[in-house]
User: Fold Guanylate cyclase domain-containing protein from Sulfitobacter sediminilitoris.
Amino acid sequence: MFVDMVGYSAMMNADQDATIQAVRELKNHQLEPVLSDFGGEILKRMGDGWIIAFSSISAALDSAIQVQTNLYGHRKLKLRIGCHLGEIVEDEDDFYGAGVNITQRIQTEAPPGGVMVSEDLFRQLSDDRAKLLNEAGTFNLKNISQPVRLYQWRPAPGSQRKLDDVPSIAVQAFEFAPVDAETEAIAGDLRDQLIVRVSRRKGVLVFDALSKAVDKATYDLRGRVRMAGGRGRFTITMTSREDARPVWSQTYEAPTDDVFAFCDEVLELAEGDLRLQTNAFDGDRLVDIPLEELSVSELRARAANEYYKTTMESWSYGLALMERAISLNPLDGVSLCMRVEAQIMLFGARYQPLPIELQAAYKEDLDTAVIQSPQSDYVFWTRAVFRLVVLDDIEGARADLKRSAELNPAYLENYELEGQIAMREGDFDGADAAFSRLIERGAQNPLQPYRLFMRGVARFCGGNYEGAAQDASTASDLRPNEAGHLKLRAMALKEMGLEDQAEDCLERARGLSTDPMVTTKLPVMPPDFHWMSEKLRPGSRA
Assistant:
């Protein structure tokens, strides 16, 4: 067992004497006596942390739950506890073993006030004790080659329902027509690949309902494949098991001249849409849990939900959530990247550069994130964006884009990055093409107005004023309260010689808020077009 005090460093900075007294209270009254009662042996004390060994799995879990139950609602003390089953190697100086390292990493994933245990330990529990825990999902722990499934417990006093159940999807058989061997094989491939791809997402559990009976799941996912006349149609539908209510459905079509290309295209679209849905599911389940009780992964899920709301307020709140996540685990790679992405978006929406003092710190953070999360497409994507937008390092951005695409060829945000690099190099047709692929494949994404704005800017710079005006108009229809879209449309209309329409757009823009907006953040511009920043920035009277 690893035990860690939440917020120890901040407490020490605020009031060292009070913090020392709190640690003594914890050691002498709240923690060590309870652990001792359950046969726990203190192997090591580390100021704000403890390593404890047990001879009994049930004693380890029972003591952890007892400690956290006793501390529930304590004014100052809050712990995170992680447990794992493994051997411990001892010498004269210290305690070692892979089990010790894994336990420490599990502890960093525990919710404040809660307990996180490994699947190895969970499988050894009695049915009664196992029912106390909820499946928390799969986690990529440093230096562990395969994702690890973890289970968590947090206090739920009184009649409070279990709020920390992770949404789960049971993937059922896919229907297909015509009923022949080739179409059956295509449907099977689509199903198998979709299971693998969605399983990589955090905050959702995916079960193959054909491999074994799935008794408990939040949703059923069904698919239909139909091939006819040189085209294929792939439909997926998600249904709530609780009330048999369809909660989401989408259809994808593509030519079938090359069945492999057909599968790749519809899977890319389906994975992108399911990524949005699973993020929404994960964010929704956390709304009622107090902020101070959320784990690092739960804070990330809530922040992702905020980012999809596409307002300055929601991105600012998401940034604050990531600051808290990093305070819980300063080496969490995805949290470090989500903080950087939020800052780039917020400063970019204000048409301001990232402050110099943040640039050096964030460069180091992103390098740390790559070391901590080397298999994350998002981590490499974020460092690429930082290199391009903040450092103007085109080659570095290209290298990270290549790595992100190798890790996940279906990661749609890579099209945005590809378009931004093309914009910086003055390849406006290439930027148009990349942004177009992103827009076509991400129709359900809440960031669609932002993507239309970027493509509109690329088209304007490339002389396609009619296309720029149309993109700006569509974006404005989606976000009618944002002046930047109207300004871009006015610029394009003026170039087309439609002066009256341009002036009408500007007049409407002047009547709107001058506050910065996330969906009118400029893409990276080549030097010859920096003048557009002054025309489009919030508050300008272009």
User: Anything to note?
Assistant: Residues 158-163 have pLDDT under 50 and may be disordered. Residues 176 and 538 are 52 Å apart (CA to CA).
